[in-house]
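Q: Here's a chain of 394 amino acids. Please give me its 3D structure as tokens.
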Amino acid sequence: MTVLNTRISLVALACAFVSPSLLAEDSSLTNPAISAVLNGYYQTGERPLAESPDGFGLGETELALSANIDDMFYGKVTAVVEMHDGDTELNLEEAFIQTMAMPAGFSIRGGRFLSDIGYLNNQHLHTDSFTDRPVVYRAFLGGHYFDDGIRFNYVAPTDLYWTMGVEAFKGDSLRAADEHGEREFKKVGVYTLYSKIGGDIGDNSSWQAGLSYLRNENGQVTAHEEGEHEDEHDHGDEHAGHSHAASYTGKNTYGADFVYKWAPNGNYKYQNLTVSGEYYRVSDFTPVDLHPEDAPSQDYHQGWYLSSVYQFTPSWSAGVRYGEADTQELHGDHFHGQKLKESEVSLAWHSSHFSTVRFQYTNQKGTNFDGIEDDNIFTIQYIMSLGAHGAHQF
């Protein structure tokens, strides 16, 4: 058998993620796939807009159940156990059904699920190569955006992998501040559009690029929120991170992402390299009746990251990542510009595909962020998977 025939195409893996039947072909309602992911850490400092306080702690402990319902539908439930202020809380991250037999490359997903915008967002946190999501995700998407809604997806019959879709969500976690409950929010608050295209480069490499747009009907600050919006952010970062709510919102969010993967002859078991990056711009967040002299220097937030992870042996991988978030904070009747920069280096030991122990160093630098100082943070993390576990996304 030739190397070409045995090579695993990353595009095929991406298609498999879109088609749950390929991931759950051995499971059924009488034999569901059941899994748990254990996540723990020790950290020497606080990370802004993040859910992990310093010291010993538990990250997201994930419990998942999935199965083919019949020949037409697939279902999945993912619950996450988290610690917050000494209390144990159970959150439902996914509870959706998806069609499996629609014609012409179409599929529909409904319920609660991870939005497919960007590159990282539709992946579970335990699949990341770093201990936390990039700062741009923590600021604009609450770490990872999942919600109640519906998705229509289409995979084109082209030589290159090409998928596109539209989603509609409640959007509660992306609402602008409303401390006194005086605002009437729209019941369907978020709409997204996305398109991703990718392919193989010879036998060794694959790539994928994407564009995303998110319309947030409830993301614009209103005039009556001036004055209390400052208080909400001055001491609300911990709550925002814990509740998976975005700390900075706006009406329109534009995103672009790219990922490149390399492995000798397409065999990722022994050696591989992944380079990825994303950019987001959140615009139209200021009140429409704001006085011109009080307007911010720029009516948008923006952020990005670039990362590279190299697995140099089957048991060891190393990664570097740099990210920034450039935001505007409302203080009373005027805005202050803010910036947060993070430089990160990680080293991970993988005893197998199901276990990881990670060591990470983070250097953070904040400008005009209340309570955030320049700091060096060291983290030790373990991630252990039990039970059946589907293939990870490309």
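Q: Can you summarize the key feature?
A: The longest strand covers residues 334-352.
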